[in-house]
Amino acid sequence: MSPKTICSFIPRMANKVKTDRGVTYRIVAIAFSKKNNFLGLAMNGFRDFMSDGKGKGMHAEMKLMKQFGKQIDRIYILRVGNALDALPIHPCDNCSKVANKLGIKIICLHEEIEDLNKYIKK
Ligand SMILES: [Zn+2]
C-alpha cells in the first residue's frame, strides 16, 4: 500500500481522539487485509490501566486481532496526544506475540510516515 493511501486514513484516526477529551493520549489502530481492503478501526482503552478484566483496557491492535484474526495482513498504529500531536508508539510484547502467531505485521505510523502532524492538525 502506498504511503499516500495510508495517509488518507490518518485524519479519520485522529478524529476519534478529538472526540475523547480528558485523556493524555489515545492509540488508534487500523487493519488491512492481504488484498488491501480496510477491515476496521479500533481505539485502546487506557493503556496504563490494563487490568480491569473486562477488556476495557485492551490495546487497539489486540481488539482488531480478536475481531478479524487471520483476515488481517497489516495493522497500523498511531498514538495521538491530547494536543493532537503524533507521539511514538510501539506494540507491546503481548500484542507482538499474538501478531507473530497470526502472521500479522504491526506497523508504527510515526516510523513509516514523515511529518505525521501534517495529517492530524488541520
Ligand atoms: Zn499491546
Structure characterization notes:
The protein is α+β, with helices and mostly antiparallel strands. The protein has a single domain (3-58, 72-120), classed as Cytidine Deaminase, domain 2, CATH 3.40.140. The protein contains six helices and five strands. A hairpin with a 4-residue loop joins strand 3 (72-81) and strand 4. The radius of gyration is 14 Å and the shape is globular. It starts with a helix and ends with a helix. Zinc ion binds next to helix 4.
Highlighted features:
122 residues, alpha+beta, five-stranded mixed beta sheet, 34% helix, globular, binds zinc ion
List the helices and strands and how they pair.
Layout (H helix, E strand, L loop, with lengths): L2 H5 L2 H9 L6 E9 L4 E6 L16 H9 L3 E10 L4 E2 L5 H10 L2 E4 H4 L4 H4 L2
Parallel strand pairs: 3-5
Antiparallel strand pairs: 1-2, 1-3, 3-4
Bound molecules: zinc ion.
